[in-house]
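To close the section, here is one more complete example, presented without commentary so you can practise reading it yourself. The ligand is LLP.
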Amino acid sequence: MPQVRGSLHERSVVGEGVLTSGFTRVNGALVCEGVPLARVAEDVGTPAYVYSASVVRDRFSRLDAALAPMPHRIHYTLKANSNRGVLRILREMGAGVDVVSGGELQRALRAGFDGSDILFGGVGKSERELREALEAGVLMINVESSAEIRLVDEIARELGVIAPVGIRVNPEVTVESSHRYIKTGEKGAKFGIPFDEVREAARIAADLSHTQLLGLDMHVGSQLFRLDPYVDGTERLVELLGQIRQDGVDTLRFLDIGGGLGVSYDDEESPDLSRFARALVPRIQPTGLTLLMEPGRYIVGNCGVLLTRVLYRKHSGGREFLVTDAGMTELIRPSHYDAYHRIDTVQPSAGQMTADVVGPVCESGDFLALDREMDEAHAGDLLAVHDVGAYGYVMASNYNSRPRGAEVLVDGERFAVVTAREQYDDLIRLELDDPEWRDS
Ligand code: LLP
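Output:
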């Protein structure tokens, strides 16, 4: 079945004239805010990721406003898009961040975030990463096992600090998500501490001399549209909080409900934030804790397109192929999660076609879209692959020794390259011409 979709123009602006995608057509040509995408491609080349600053600002403000009825802080999840240009926008708006590696911690610090703005999570933090997090004075380290709690305490003792610890709970709730790879909060997942072991983990943390238990945390999955997993999970966290307090631990300050809010890639309805807040705030407010959230995709998912050029059009085995200069190395979501991303021609197109849009990588799984009904395109045409602001560039690879494309930020009438296109030299920069051989 070919996939049939409405035109971009119909869906770029909804209700109250609110810009939801930042991308519209002017005289038929695609523009990002005030900048024609063809102009960006001409200046910067392809493939290039183009992000709209106003979409990022808009998404952050909406979520922040929805949570306004109670003390809260939004810790943007760096893994979705860790570009410094994007981070700067969010820092200016008052966001904190959520990081999951020493590398992301460095990025956050270099983007000007203070330790106290940073949550540190992740299922497999190394000793070095934990040390770096403590040295940076992060707000909270979300631990995922009792062994990790003990290790954090040991490192904190060596450093002479008290480790601020949150427990990542696996609330074991039912999660509906677009792909099984992006569910995390069901029973048996590798993430978090199993629900019925959390009380014991909290006792361990409370008894340690260099650890302070500051919070409970969950993240149940990604690209979620239903409220139930949030509500069920929050109720489970609140229940645990009661038990932990009964055990005499009264140091908790934060309830972190993770990320996961879904965005529209096609015709999905974005979650209704006021319903979301109405469901969660009354459940969390009575605890007296500050609500933390770690959204990634919701903030940046719809802010960007991948600009790519059609290299060849060919026909084979009854199928029409558009071979583009971007593929799974630039956007792995279609091949890895069967993800749908809208694709339009940048310039007005005369008709429609059904095509497989495939990349140049030597893999049959290298595609951006299969059997897609789309604007008619020819060799040399520019295409925009939509909604690549989250999990696009950050999941790019150098497979086939392909240099990563540029990242461009648009703000009003202006645009800037915020990450330069990689060059061939970058690909071999770390390889040693004359390696030092060591005896065994
Ligand atoms: N917090 C934690 C602990 C997480 O693991 C994640 C995402 C988030 C927050 C942010 O989730 P978001 O709000 O972006 O849904 N690469 C996949 C998505 C993987 C999500 C991993 N964790 C994709 O392209 O769909």
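Once you have examined the tokens, check your reading against these statements. The chain is about 30% helix and 25% strand. Residues 77, 80, 98, 121, 182, 219, 222-223, 258-261, 294-298, 333, 337, 390-391 surround LLP (CB under 6 Å).
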